[in-house]
Amino acid sequence: MSDACDVVLGLSGGVDSSLACAMLLEQGLRPLAVTFRFQPCDDDAAGSCCGAGAVRLAARVAARLGVEHRVVDLRAEFERLVLARAWQQYAAGRTPNPCVDCNRLLRFPALARLADELGAPWLATGHHARLRPGTEGAGLLRGADTGKDQSYFLYGVEPALLARCRFPVGGLHKEEVRRRAAALGLETAGRPDSQDLCLDHQGLGPGELLRLRFRGERRPGEIVDEQGRPLGRHGGVHRFTIGQRRGLELALGRPAWVCALDAGAARVTVTCDPGRLLAGGLVAGRVSWLDGERPRDWFAAAARIRYRHAAVPCRARLEGERLEVRFAEPQRAVTPGQALVLYRDDRVLGGGTIESEVRP
What we know:
Blueprint: E1 7-10, H1 15-26, E2 31-37, H2 52-65, E3 69-73, H3 75-91, H4 98-118, E4 122-124, E5 129-131, E6 140-142, H5 159-162, E7 165-166, H6 174-183, H7 206-213, E8 221-224, E9 230-234, E10 257-262, E11 267-271, E12 278-289, E13 299-304, E14 312-319, E15 322-332, E16 339-344, E17 347-358
Parallel strand pairs: 1-2, 1-4, 2-3, 4-7, 8-11
Antiparallel strand pairs: 5-6, 8-9, 10-11, 12-15, 12-17, 13-14, 13-16, 14-15, 16-17
Helix pairs in contact: 1-6, 3-4
């Protein structure tokens, strides 16, 4: 069947990619389904995105739909390109977004390599995002279901690869995806959404899980106030993120939030003033620009500074490989390591990795 394949689909064992496979068939395409092994785990828990159970489920979905299914082992690449990079960021006091790196460095390039081997022009996934054909640049748009939109995780994918992509469920709301999957008799119809369990397992936060995995040095240090006065001790800056309140184990008699991390000094700074968490803007590096020619001056956009964050009005400027952003209203907990993504209406302009905040 693979000799006649014209689209390679990433089939994860979830409902979105399962219905995407069915929709490609409805469109007259001939998909080959591939499931990537990213993690050396056999977790069959509901919502696991990497377990052996998900691989078996994907195989059953492919069999029901009558498409060829392959499993490709990318565990070594995932360890090197995604997890090791994430640990380096946590150890440096930043909070990475491994899903962005996975899509940019591994998932979509791997789909493209297989498609090229098979002579298939198209790639497909179950992401909730859309593409606008015939436009300059990649034409990446938000998914129709704003609560499930995943365009934030795709801004770093090479424009040439995005131009080959199809996102069949991107125009649907999640309830419609589940309803249509159930009507087709797909057993994934009621499966819970992936919870990214490969980076948060057995009660460990992702930073500590990665420290153990890579045998990183445990560097305890001081928790201090903004004047540098000691307030307590901690087990490593990799356990903390900007704006964090829980887990500080401080008896101050009032709320406190993490406002700065200094990995070199193993120091966590906290504040009791929530206004201290507000930033007037930010600087981002490692820029990926999707919307045609890069602007030469300040331009209006809407900025999303984390996945569960509504895009807010801003002005932005490209300076070499950096993005400067100024918010219309101060924003809380701008976090180095997280992705900044810029939008204009539903269109993704580009983005980068947050390096620092700009004070109001």
